[in-house]
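PROTEIN DESIGN WORKSHEET
SECTION A - STRUCTURE
LENGTH: 265
TOKENS:
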């Protein structure tokens, strides 16, 4: 398993607070079956842009500490970049240095906000694609405005935008509405990547064992490919900087609503 979204670097954002916490988070990842993890500190949130060279040094130091602690996991650097006008200044053109990209690839993890208007996001995403980036939308299930207009979301995917969901959303960690949206996205085959979005060791962790079981159960119920495996296959393409061509759904299956759907789950 490749965890493409995590806040395991300590002291850079609202994620890990210490080296010990980072190592404990990595142990949780390892126990979940994660072989590679991408550290994605917040970038451009409240205008704060961490220095890329400094983040690279932090990843190297954490990898050394993990090796010493005999934690078998490869740590890659990335970023979770909030999408706004400043992003377009930060990501002017995708160059060979792949600054603020995921694991030295052309993929960028893009975070929308509750205030994001889909029409404005669409323009920015198209611009990023034209500049040579391959955007992945972080935790799509947290944005009801995207599921209210699935045709628009499908058009984005057709243009080359990919979707990431948080593993914990499938277990209900972020509430029943987010869980239902994650299931709807999965049912429609538009969850391309998985991440823990782990911030700490006590809540919003990097432990994905429960999610792994839930995804296997869901796969049997929906008779679809297990997301745990398909997402790993897609994430592997990030590590190799290869393009991902997702399958498109024939038609959009609307979200199941209300108590009845949950009773007969
Ligand atoms: Fe995150």
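SECTION B - SEQUENCE
RESIDUE ASSIGNMENT:
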């Amino acid at each position: 398993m490749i965890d493409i979204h995590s806040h395991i670097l300590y002291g850079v954002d609202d994620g890990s607070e210490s080296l010990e916490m980072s190592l404990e988070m990595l142990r949780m990842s390892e126990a979940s079956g994660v072989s590679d993890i991408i550290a994605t500190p917040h970038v451009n949130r409240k205008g704060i842009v961490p220095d890329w060279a400094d983040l690279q040094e932090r990843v190297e130091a954490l990898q050394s500490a993990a090796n010493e602690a005999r934690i078998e996991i490869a740590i890659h650097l990335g970023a979770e970049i909030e999408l706004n006008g400043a992003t377009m200044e930060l990501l002017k053109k995708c160059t060979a240095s792949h600054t603020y990209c995921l694991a030295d690839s052309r993929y960028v993890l893009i975070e929308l906000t509750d205030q994001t208007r889909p029409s404005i996001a669409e323009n920015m995403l198209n611009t990023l694609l034209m500049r040579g980036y391959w955007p992945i939308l972080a935790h799509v299930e947290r944005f009801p405005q995207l599921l209210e207009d699935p045709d628009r979301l499908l058009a984005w995917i057709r243009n080359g935008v990919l979707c990431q969901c948080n593993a914990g959303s499938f277990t209900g960690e972020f509430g029943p509405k987010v869980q239902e949206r994650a299931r709807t996205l999965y049912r429609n085959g538009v969850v391309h990547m998985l991440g823990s979005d782990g911030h700490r060791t006590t809540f919003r962790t990097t432990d994905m064992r429960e999610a792994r079981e839930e995804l296997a159960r869901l796969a049997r119920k929906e008779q679809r490919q297990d997301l745990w495996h398909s997402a790993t296959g897609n994430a592997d393409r990030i590590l190799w900087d290869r393009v991902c061509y997702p399958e498109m759904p024939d038609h959009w299956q609307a979200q199941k609503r209300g108590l009845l759907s949950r009773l007969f789950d």
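SECTION C - NOTES
Residues 2-263 form a domain with the TIM Barrel fold (CATH 3.20.20.140).
The radius of gyration is 18 Å.
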